[in-house]
Structures are given as C-alpha cells and as structure tokens.
Amino acid sequence: MVPDQSFTKIASQTPIKKKLISDSITGKTTSYYSYINNEKKLEDQKAISEFGYLTLFPNREDIYDALESSFSGTIDNYKTPTGEIVKAEEVTWIKNLPNVLFFQIQRVQYNVKDSLSKQNA
After folding, report:
1. I need a labelling partner for 103 at 20 to 30 A (CA). Which of 38, 45, 67, 93 fits?
2. Is residue 47 one of the residues assigned to a domain?
3. Distance CA 24, CA 81 (A)
4. Is 41:34 a contact under the CB 8 Å cutoff?
C-alpha cells in the first residue's frame, strides 16, 4: 500500500503550523525581583514565562494605570537564591508580544483574609 502523498506533506508541516498558532496568541514576559539583603539592594531575574492574555483591573484611573498594576507588585514571602525569605518588589517586562493581544478584565477581586469577593467598578 502506497501512502497518500498529500497526507505526508500535511503531517510534515504540522509543527510549523503549531508554532505559527502559538506565536499568534502567546507572548513572553521576564520578571525581575528586587529586595534588600544586609542593607544592599539586590536584583534577581526569573525565567521567561509565556502569557495568553493581559489582565486589566478596571478600578484604576486609566488603561495605562491598569496595565502598570498588572506588571508590578510586592511579594511578602520571596525566597532569595540563598534561601532567605524577604519582602521583594516584582516588575514584569514584556519580551515578545503575540500577533493578537487579548485582555482579560478582572471584574472581581477575592480577599483571602476575609474570604470575600468584591466586584470592581
């Protein structure tokens, strides 16, 4: 039995199609963490991660403020490369944007301390 030529051609192009789709809808970010250790400000870079959408919080002044709040924050229990637990500031930078950019509007926030959810206006 002779294999169908068209099937072989399509099967050989599948990884290229997957990469094309992946590049179209996923981007990459790099996160940087800064913390104070023995009165010195140190920085740590984490691995590059992929994202499929950007989260926006509508209770901010404008879209720029909403994006900034998604890309910066504070981590109370950050583990340093030496194993210490410290408070750190996180800043995330977009390394590669996808061809199609999706936004998720985070309309509800959950308060872990009180076990309550709050709707953003």
Report:
1. 45
2. yes
3. 34
4. yes
Note whether residue 15 is domain-resident.
Answer: no
- Read off the tokens for 110: 């959950």
Residue 19 lies in a domain: no
Structural domains in the chain (count): 1
pLDDT score of 2 more than 80: no
Given a cut of 60, whether residue 101 has pLDDT beyond it is yes
Residue 17 lies in a domain: no
pLDDT digits (tens, 9 = 90+) for 26-45: 999 998 888 887 777 878 77
Does residue 3 carry a pLDDT above 60?
no
CA distances from 90 to 27, 37, 46, 70, 99 (A): 19, 15, 10, 10, 26
Q: Name the one residue in this structure whose structure tokens are 């039995």.
A: 1
Query: How many Cα atoms occupy the beta-carbon half-sphere of 102 within 13 Å?
Result: 9
Q: Can you tell me the distance from the alpha carbon of 52 to that of 56, in angstroms, rounded to the nearest whole number? A: 13
Q: Is the pTM of this model over 0.85?
A: no
